[in-house]
Amino acid sequence: MKLFKRVITGLIAALFVLAPFSVAAQDESRIFDDAGLFSPTNIQRLDEKIADMEAEGRWNYYIVTTRDAGGKTARSFADDFYDQNHLGRGEDASGVLLLIDMDNREAYISTGGAAVDYYTSGKIEDTLDKISSSLSRSNYYSAANSFLNAVDAPMQSTSATPAAGNSNSVTTQPETDTQTTEETTAELTLGQWVAVSASWAVIAVGIFIAVVWSKHRANGTVRGIAVTPQNQDQLTLTRSEDRFVNVVTHTRRIQQSSSQSRNKGGTKPSVHRSSSGVRHGGGGRKF
């Protein structure tokens, strides 16, 4: 009987000792806070949010912080951390990782697997826009939370599904550059100027003849417009010539930057290879 009680007591004690390890194994954290930027409560909340996102999504999400990048750039550190810790979901290791690098003072987003083609350079720039202000104020939990909101929002739309039969394809919309056309004031052509000039010349000659005719009628001597020795000193013809310069109209197209041409913008992923040769996408920004 005593032996039985000892066995039961030992089993109960073993259960209490092993229970925390069992829970930890079932609830693996996605937060690697080596820089100590988050409180335990922050980590718990971020993990819970990630668990909900992963339950409905197609890849995993991670948040990594460090104070020592080991001489690496933020991009190299993020990609190597991803590869060396075998992060991501499925055979292609699909996932999205946010690195808050306190050594290089840079936030970097690294994508792997199917997430590389979905999170284009434009989406990544938009995400960095949303977290930059929090990082500059040293509000790291807010930045991490904003990151999760930004990368999760596109997944709720039907556009998150890649083109059938091509997981590496990215559907792009044609970009339309706004063009402004400037034209100089419309001018008459040379032929039109000649026609107008000829008309005015005919009118001028008509007026001149009328004036001369009236003058000679007033003097009682109508000789028409013939020039005689008696009136050639009185009659002086002046030739007037108008010269018109042809005005050439120039059309100039002024290119204006498109709203999607930012670095921000881009409809294709920024793809590169990590030190281990694995295909990654991503982008970063100093803070």
* Rg, Cα atoms, Å: 42 Å
Low-confidence stretches: 11-26, 157-188, 256-263
Strand order of the largest sheet: 1-2-3-4-8-7
In percent terms, what proportion of residues is strand?
A: 15-25%
How many helix segments? 7
What's the pLDDT, averaged over the residues?
A: 74
**SSE string:** HEHEHEEHHHEHEEE
User: Given the C-alpha coordinates, what overall shape results?
Assistant: rod-shaped
Number of E strands = 8
Report the sheet with the most strands, covering strand number, pairing sense and barrel closure: 6 strands, mixed
Fraction of residues in helix: 40-55%
Question: Termini distance?
Answer: 68 Å
Q: Structural class of the helix and strand makeup?
A: alpha/beta
Keywords:
single chain; 287 residues; alpha/beta; six-stranded mixed sheet; two-stranded antiparallel ribbon; 7 helices; rod-shaped
Describe this structure in words.
By secondary structure, the chain is α/β, with parallel strands linked by helices. 40% of the residues lie in helices and 16% in strands. The chain contains seven helices and eight strands, in the order αβαβαββαααβαβββ. It has helices at 2-26, 40-56, 74-84, 114-118, 121-136, 140-152, 190-218, and strands at 31-33, 60-66, 95-101, 106-112, 179-183, 251-255, 271-273, 279-286. Strands 1-2-3-4-8-7 form a six-stranded mixed sheet, sandwiched between helices. The chain has a two-stranded antiparallel ribbon with strand order 5-6. It is rod-shaped, with a radius of gyration of 42 Å. The relative contact order is 0.14.
